[in-house]
Amino acid sequence: MFGSASHGTNAFFAGGFKISKSGVEVVSIVEKYNAETKTWASIHVMHRRRKSCSACFLHGKFYVLGGQNENDENLNCGESYDEETDSWELIPNMLANVYLSFFQAPPRIAVVNDNLYLLETSLNELLVYNVNTNTWKKLWNYTCESRFN
């Protein structure tokens, strides 16, 4: 229910939820684990609380995208974390033109050669993200039967 990605000896974990006596709370917390020193560190919280999100490293930054808020509504924004400045940048409408149903959270993403790809299973499309323009480009349609869109 959280997004995670690794970079070097660090693993980052973002969002998700916590359970307390008062109920279930969707969170915006982010934690980093250093496998070399075997230590945990909290980093700045994200702008949005999110669960069922995806995460990756792209161009040296930690990206968290999509997911759902505390009302189970799909989020179309993303965020990027710059470790050098220790700051988050909100990316409004990062997924605005991407159709994601409730069942597609978290978004199916992968980074290859520093390019972010998204597999959109309802329309059977493979998309690539342009970080400079905050837009997605359809690469091709694929034919694959999916039981859960």
Automatic annotation (TrEMBL):
Record has Transcription as a keyword: no
InterPro entries in the cross-refs: F-box/Kelch-repeat, Kelch-typ_b-propeller, Kelch_1
Keyword Repeat included in the entry's annotation: yes
GO CC annotation: cytosol; nucleus
Signal peptide annotation: none
Keyword list, A-Z: Kelch repeat, Repeat
Annotated protein name in UniProt: Uncharacterized protein
Biological source species: Brassica carinata
